[in-house]
Model the fold of this input.
Amino acid sequence: MKKYLPFSIVFFLLFFFFLPKIVFAVYQTTAESTVKVGKPPETIIPITQASCPIPKGPPDVGKVTCGTKWTLRSGCGHCGVGYPPDSTRAYCDYDGNWAAIDIKGYCNTPIYLPSIDGNVIEWTYLYSQRVIGGNQQAHIYTGRNIETGVKYWLEFHHTVPGSQNEGTHNSGELAAKVTCNGFNHTHMQIASGNQREKNHTWIDAGKTFCLGQ
Amino acid sequence: MDKKKLLIAIYLVIILFLVFILTLVLPLFRKSLPEKTGTSPTEFPGQKFPFFRTSPSLSPSPTISVVPTIIEKLRIINVLPEEDTATRRLPITQIEVTFNLPVEINNFFYEVKPLVETYLNQVNPNTILISPEVVWENGITTITIIDKTFSKNGSFLDKPFTYRIYTDFPEERPLGPDSD
Done:
């Protein structure tokens, strides 16, 4: 018994010396390791105006040839007035189609990542939807307003396969190119992830993009 | 005889040492101090505990009066979008959590399963926005707000809060030659 006494004393001393450190380490691992703090507080700004992914050019490049169901452009609205009934039957079950716009462009016309409300958005290429017939793809990006933290979902359809800009890019950088199979436009639709936005899911692109084009 | 005394002395020293260490360690396991006791509460880094307030006095006085303050517990009063795991949402959906008291993002503790990188934004003093850095993983994501979260006035969340959201990419659009 006596011969183990010094060992017991040393054990107790070491154990209680390290205990507070162990407790703190466990606390910090559980409480802080999963937390990433974002930008300082900012006011969330409603979407009122956004840039156009295809700038205006001759002869009619950048023209909005069809608006949204609720905001007609060139006398047309997706899934509404002026939209072919066959297309309504075939494509209007697709998420967000009603909120899309068509922007005129020709084979390989560059499409740029838009700004929103004059703010630069940080866009990240996410994936491309597969092609069912026709030499085209839909390229999909997620965006983040660096100031407010509001997130976006952006789709460009009828684009050249492989023309997406992989990685993270800012507004104004290339997003894709218009397909060369005779569509002569890109179909753009955008959603917001912020519940405070009026259209917190699909944004009426006819109201906010390519105004005056 | 001397050895016996020495052993007793060693045991006494060990017991006193253990009592001393336990006194130091025990407060680590406490979240808050019962209001009836008069000792100082344990503080987490950067946290203020306004449980006790000393009254200001113009002239030096040997007596200090202690006024206990009743602190309202921190509660979650609203989450947007409403929890509904039957509804498929876009994987960028941001989750807005509103408390009954002001909370700072530095004092907001949460876990995400399956784990993805997230970021926080303060919408207003009582509301925090949780966002995925890119997207939530497809399927159910569970977000647990841990009861270590505390308000600006130092009161902890009354209990852990679990929220589930179902997200997935939109179904692929049939991009046929006649699509519009």
